[in-house]
Write a structure and sequence with these properties.
Layout (H helix, E strand, L loop, with lengths): L5 H6 L2 H35 L5 H56 L2 E8 L2 E7 L12 H36 L14 H13 L7 H14 L3 H11 L2 H16 L4 H21 L11 H10 L15 H9 L6 H17 L32 H10 L2 H8 L24 H6 L16 H4 L4 H15 L14 H13 L8 H13 L1 H8 L21 H11 L3 H20 L2 E2 L2 E2 L1 H29 L1 H13 L1 H4 L6 E3 L2 E4 L10 E4 L7 H13 L12 H26 L9 H23 L6
Antiparallel strand pairs: 1-2, 3-4, 5-6, 6-7
Helix pairs in contact: 2-3, 3-4, 4-5, 4-6, 5-6, 5-7, 6-9, 7-9, 8-9, 8-11, 10-11, 10-12, 11-13, 12-13, 12-14, 13-17, 14-17, 17-18, 17-19, 19-22, 20-21, 21-23, 22-23, 22-24, 22-26, 22-27, 23-24, 23-27, 23-28, 26-27, 27-28
Length: 764
């Protein structure tokens, strides 16, 4: 039963709990003294006394039990003290965050916050904007997005408080026991210890867990998944890697069969929570962690059939089950890389190795197998799963795709094949034209879902490459751009490889677009032929790639053929061009040659993209343009960001509004000033280019391609127009104003002509 509410957690006086903690510490110390005296005095004398007869035996045993009760009382008191002490510390932290959200953030946003009890797995928090009679109550997507984020965060804080309260109640009840005249019941070294024991107890029930028990289990794991002490102790308590696979395999199949929506959602939470906890427990840098033998054992179990149920005719391989967990959590390279290497090597030898035991198709939504999330496959292809894992593990992904890696060759059973050479790189293996992605779906043949059965692989590959090149998890809601020499080298291979449109499948295009956005500064430099006298020449070469103008044009041309890639890079160029222009102003003086070059290069990139888009529309017809429009429409929230564009650590972050859990876009800025004015100017520029957000295609291909050029030119001009307004530069100025317009027009024409002459043909 839930006992903690939002208001209760906010208003409760935790100083009383602190006083109780202090009192219990005093009790512990006093009982320790009494127990020590009883053991060293009373019991010691009784043991050494020269008694004889029945009375001596009875008295000696009574003294022993009495001394033991003192020590048991001390142990129980110490357990209570440690649990309460941990609970107080955690509740203070939660309460502080909750008060900040309610007392500072909500008023600043202009919203009211109400709680409507609990529903499903947590509290229901409603955040809304009060009616304002002076306006029409219209709110921007940014404001609505912030309100949604605040509500989610408050709900999580309250849910965390509820879990702490429930765990303390369970621990105190077990410490005290049911016998009021006997000490010596369950003892705990910490609140984590109490929660771990309860989680292990529930895990022992397996599929016999009721929905309520599974919700309790999820709550415990969720709030402790990133705690090394808890996660390590919990996984160790299961009995080893094989027992973990058996537990998760049974829970996954049980939760994804049938049409029980509540059980499915609980199982999806289980997948996320267990994956995050496994990443924590297998990180060797944590003081508490599982031994390296777990990774070795997982490799040996990878190609071994696992019997989940006695008499089952189809047995899943270990990697198929483990893959469901690898999809969530930030894994250390020392754990996930050997597994990823082994899986890719198995795929290279036989792409259908893991498909031979896939259950028979049964329908579009009948079974998600070992991937309850349903994202990128049903979970029978571990290659997709491990690539998703790399997509959440930037350091591991970067090293995995680097040419500097020294591959370890494995036998089919996961043991090292000593002295063997691999003969290929993992990057080349996964990006080659004829790579075979597994049809990881149980959808009925002929259905729409079955038609997309092989798309999970390239989508997951894109996620892994994003993590490798950008330095953050592909779906991080608050990412930081981290580029170094290794990630830049991987990006150089990406640009060179995916300048070939035959290698790009639609599910991969959005990732390539975000990667292009993350290196938009180096794409601009490439169009200056990577000259050292270019204004884009980086002062510090670390984290920068030299693509060369030929590779850059082909990459932009190929990615521009795909709606998601086009919209990502087009928007990124507007953002980067805005900051680059503002960086040319120093003490009121404008570096005019550099400003002209910024406008020219930005227009060239937009021209390349537009020519590619127009050629693709000509090749595929108006239906393709509708796809571009839908992709651009998804970016419509950016138009309404206002000052909400985040600038930090030398990059602008454009998060996707009303799309929880979807990756935003990080874009390098020319200057890392990070001022609010820059953010507002970026928002204004994107708004100026809003006409590119077309919602209706023209009546003919010719009319539509004409429209592509018109609105593309407008998007290219948006940074320049904003710059001219901000600095009082007139269009009819015979000097600088006209120079900028000429730079815009010449750059755009150079881009369209350059794409036609040096780009790639449409991939129809």
């Amino acid at each position: 039963m839930v006992t903690v509410s939002m208001s209760g957690l906010t208003e409760v006086d935790l100083s009383k709990l602190e006083a109780s903690v202090t009192d219990w510490k005093s009790v512990v110390d006093k009982l320790d003294t009494l127990a020590t005296r009883a053991e060293g005095g009373l019991r010691a004398r009784a043991e050494s006394a020269r008694w004889a007869g029945v009375n001596s035996d009875v008295t000696r045993e009574f003294v022993r039990k009495t001394a033991k009760e003192f020590r048991d009382a001390h142990a129980e008191a110490e357990s209570i003290y440690k649990v309460l002490d941990d609970a107080h510390r955690e509740l203070v932290a939660v309460q502080k965050k909750l008060r900040t959200a309610l007392d500072e953030e909500a008023p600043a946003l202009g919203v009211k916050v109400y709680e409507y009890g609990s529903q499903g797995e947590g509290p229901v928090i409603h955040v809304f904007f009060p009616h304002d009679r002076t306006t029409d109550d219209t709110r921007t997507e940014e404001e609505l997005g912030k309100a949604h984020e605040l509500a989610t965060r408050i709900a999580n804080l309250v849910a965390h408080g509820q879990e702490i309260d429930a765990s303390v109640a369970r621990a105190l009840a077990k410490s005290h026991g049911s016998d009021a005249h006997d000490f010596g019941h369950e003892t705990y070294t910490s609140l984590d210890d109490a929660e771990q024991q309860r989680a292990t107890e529930l895990a022992g029930l397996g599929t016999r867990m009721s929905d309520r028990q599974l919700a309790e289990f999820n709550s415990i794991i969720k709030w402790n998944a990133k705690n090394p002490d808890f996660s390590t102790a919990f996984y160790a308590s299961l009995g080893g890697p094989e027992k973990l696979l058996e537990f998760y395999g049974r829970m996954s199949l049980d939760g994804t069969e049938g049409d029980g929506k509540k059980r499915l959602e609980l199982t999806r939470q289980l997948q996320r929570n267990l994956g995050t906890a496994l990443a924590t427990a297998t990180d060797p840098d944590n003081k508490a962690h599982l031994p390296s033998s777990w990774g070795e054992r997982f490799r040996k179990l990878g190609t071994k059939p696992i019997e989940l149920y006695p008499g089952a005719t189809t047995l899943p391989f270990g990697y198929q089950i483990l893959g469901g967990l690898l999809r969530y959590g930030r894994y250390d390279p020392r754990f996930i890389s050997p597994i990823a290497e082994h899986i890719v090597q198995l795929h290279h030898k036989n792409p259908d190795f893991f498909m031979r035991n896939k259950p028979m198709p049964g329908g579009a939504d009948t079974n998600w197998g070992f991937n309850p999330s349903g994202k990128d496959g049903a979970g029978y292809d571990p290659l997709t799963s491990v690539l998703e894992g790399l997509g959440h593990s930037p350091e591991a992904a970067k090293k995995f795709f680097s040419d500097d890696i020294r591959p370890t060759v494995y036998n089919e059973d996961g043991t090292v094949k000593k002295g063997a050479a691999l003969g290929y790189t993992y990057f080349d293996e996964l990006t080659k034209k004829d790579v075979e992605w597994a049809p990881d779906s149980l959808a009925a043949p002929g259905s729409d879902a079955a038609a997309h059965a092989r798309e999970g692989g390239p989508d997951a590959l894109g996620h892994a490459l994003e993590a490798a090149t950008l330095g953050h998890s592909y779906d991080d809601p608050a990412p930081t751009l981290r580029r170094d020499s290794v990630s830049a080298a991987v990006m150089a291979k990406v640009v060179e490889t995916y300048g070939d449109p035959e290698r790009i499948q639609d599910p991969l295009a959005d990732s390539l677009g975000r990667m292009g956005a993350g290196y938009i500064d180096d794409l601009n430099w490439a169009l200056n032929e990577n000259r050292t006298d270019s204004l884009y020449y980086p002062a510090n070469s670390t984290g920068h790639a030299q693509f060369g103008d030929g590779n850059a044009i082909k990459f932009l041309s190929a990615v521009g053929q795909h709606p998601d890639g086009y919209s990502e890079i087009s928007t990124a160029q507007q953002v980067y061009g805005t900051t680059a222009l503002e960086a040319q102003v120093h003490d009121g003086h404008i570096n005019q040659p550099h400003a002209r070059e910024v406008v020219r290069t930005g227009a060239e990139i937009q021209g390349i993209l537009d020519q590619s888009r127009a050629d693709q529309v000509r090749a595929e017809g108006l239906a393709r343009d509708e796809a571009y429009n839908k992709s651009l429409e998804k970016k419509a929230g950016w138009i309404q960001f206002g000052a909400g564009v985040g600038i930090a650590a030398g990059a602008a972050f454009l998060p996707p509004v009303a799309a929880a859990g979807v990756a935003g876009t990080l874009i390098p800025v020319f200057t890392d000033a990070g001022t609010g004015a820059i953010g507002q100017q970026i928002a204004n520029v994107i708004s100026d280019g809003a006409e590119t957000m077309q919602h209706d295609s023209a009546a003919s291909v010719h009319q539509q391609t004409s429209e592509v050029y018109r609105v593309g030119h407008k998007a290219a001009a948006a940074p320049m127009e904003s710059f001219m307004r901000n600095h009082g530069i007139r269009h009819d100025d015979d000097g600088f104003g006209q120079d900028l317009e000429e730079a815009l027009n010449s750059g755009y024409v150079k881009g369209t002509d350059g794409e036609s002459q040096r780009g790639v043909l449409p991939n129809a």
